[in-house]
Amino acid sequence: MIINIMGVALIALVAWFFFGKRKEVSVVAGDDIDIEVAGGYKPAAITVRRCKPVTLKFHRTDPSDCLAEVVLAEFKIRKTLPLDEITAITITPEKTGEYDFTCGMNMFHGKLKVI
Fold this sequence. Notes:
Layout: H1 2-19, E1 26-28, E2 32-37, E3 41-42, E4 45-48, E5 54-60, E6 69-72, E7 77-80, E8 86-91, E9 97-103, E10 109-114
Parallel strand pairs: 1-4, 2-5, 4-10
Antiparallel strand pairs: 2-3, 5-8, 6-7, 6-9, 9-10
């Protein structure tokens, strides 16, 4: 009985960890923004201005193959992120809205909010 209870508790913990709602804090970017790529993207929510160029500087420190690539589908960008290097991607968002960026396997997510 105890093993069953512990099993259900562990399943609930895993479900909460992967699917639970997280508080999203958006960072306002100026001309550029540093994004740490380690177990996800930090910051994961970035606010940028419409029609203003912004450079996203991805610094990958996580050796995971999943995070070896970043995809900004709406901007038709797919870039390899070499380990322990900074990869700069400059975009000029033309429309307001929210745009996702993901790892190459679509497991880790970030968001660009264009205002």
